[in-house]
Design a protein that fits this description.
about 425 residues, Aminopeptidase, 12 helices, about 35% helix, elongated, binds (2S)-amino(hydroxy)ethanoic acid, binds manganese (II) ion
């Protein structure tokens, strides 16, 4: 049996698996569209299931469709969970989430071919609905796993067409029987691309993710009065889209007001009736604000609410601001981070501490188990874009740090 000291993953096999998975829901510009619980997601899950079976794992699927591929240890101890998500944005990339799941699978494949048995079981997890683009909020299944959202509320979540998450699970055969959460996990590790420019710009191979920044999601609904674009005099109008435009400007100003770490985004908007010669009667838009510090996120939240009230008054509209989610900033486990730093240095990689700008399932799992993340650089920091790209050696470096960290954890008392 090979010693684990000089163990390395098979970089070509990992890259080949990433490229194979990327064909599912592949877009003309080289990205991926495998939104949660669509036919494409189901196809990607089926491929992952085949690969895990071929690697001797037993697969369990929980009631929200999250998948757990288990490699038994020599002792029946709480497992090491390694994973991320296979669902993507509508114009997502090949690596967001997928790298963390397939690097976990590559770790299993490597252990199998070297005959290494670990004390603890290792499970590779694919969390349902991490992206939140189809069913809001993001990181939904891991939030239920962590007891932050009820299973019933998650199952009743609906997409923009009114499709219910629970029904989509059944329709695509992803509704498992395993209860969600409620079991002891020794540790959770998530490898993920940085989705920002810091590591590549600094020539770093690895990011030691110290925390995930806090985020809040809202839906803002503005209601005015539909009327004819021709005969309705300007002073008589109650134009929901004009109010929304005023609000969007203010949301952007909130992100700028709390620079350099704050961000604020309006990413979705629906206009009713969306006809060029009708003054819009109703507009619904999304708001996403983030900041690493809780107090500043709270101040931004207050500014969002004030901007909404200002818009209703100034534009003579009615409406409502709906809280969709609040994921507080979360520090990751220092003990795990120390192991990650040690193993990264032992492999000769250049690493640095970094705060995650994006949300991840690890942020929720950190509430119920020691959790930590490892970042790889990504090209020009681009993500949530079909041009998202990484170097194979970045994927391999991250996967090797993941492998060595997992081995330390899987054999510790
Ligand atoms: O929203 C996020 O940060 C993640 O991509 N779900
Ligand atoms: Mn992700
Ligand atoms: Mn994402």
């Amino acid at each position: 049996m090979q010693s684990s000291h000089n163990l390395r993953i098979n970089a070509d096999r990992l890259w080949a698996s990433l490229m194979e998975m990327a064909k599912i829901g592949g877009t003309p510009k080289g990205g991926c569209n495998r939104q949660a619980l669509t036919a494409e997601d189901a196809e990607g899950r089926a491929l992952f299931t085949r690969w895990c079976a071929a690697s001797g794992c037993t697969m369990r699927v929980d009631r929200l469709g999250s998948m757990f591929a288990r490699r038994e240890g020599t002792e029946d101890l709480p497992p090491i969970l390694i994973g991320s998500h296979l669902d993507t944005q509508p114009t997502g990339g090949k690596f967001d989430g997928v790298l963390g799941v397939l690097a976990g699978l590559e770790l299993i494949r490597t252990l199998n071919e070297t005959g290494i048995r670990t004390r603890r079981p290792i499970e590779i997890v694919n969390w349902t609905n991490e992206e939140g683009c189809r069913f809001a909020p993001a990181m939904l299944a891991s939030a239920v796993h962590a007891g932050l959202i009820t299973e019933a509320a998650a199952l009743d979540t609906r997409d923009a067409t009114g499709a219910r998450l629970g029904d989509e699970l059944v329709r695509h055969g992803q509704n498992g029987e395993t209860p969600v959460g409620g079991r002891k996990i020794e540790a959770y590790l998530e490898l993920h691309i940085e989705q920002g420019p810091i590591l590549e710009a600094g020539g770093f191979d690895i990011g030691f993710v110290t925390s995930g920044q806090g985020l809040r999601w809202y839906d803002a609904i503005f209601r005015g009065f539909e009327s004819h674009a021709g005969p309705t005099p300007m002073p008589n109008r109650r134009d929901a889209l004009l109010g929304a435009a005023r609000f969007i400007q203010q949301i952007n100003e909130i992100g700028l007001a709390f620079a350099p770490d704050a961000v604020s985004t309006v990413g979705e908007m629906t206009v009713m009736p969306n006809s060029r010669n009708v003054i819009p009667g109703e507009v619904k838009l999304s708001v996403d604000i983030r900041h690493p510090e809780a107090a500043t996120l709270a101040a931004m939240d207050a500014r969002v609410r004030a901007a909404f009230a200002d818009t209703l008054a100034a534009s003579r509209l009615d409406g409502e601001l709906i809280d969709i989610s609040h994921s507080p900033s979360v520090p990751f486990d220092q003990g795990l981070l120390d192991i990650i730093r040690t193993e990264s240095a032992a492999l000769g990689f250049k690493g640095r501490n970094i705060v995650s700008g994006a949300g991840h399932d690890a942020v929720h799992i950190a509430k119920v188990a020691p959790a930590a993340m490892i970042f790889t650089p990504c090209k020009d920091g681009i993500s949530h874009n079909e041009a998202e790209d990484i170097l194979p050696e970045w994927a391999a470096a991250g996967a090797n740090v993941l492998l060595r960290t997992a081995l330390v954890l899987a054999d510790r008392p």
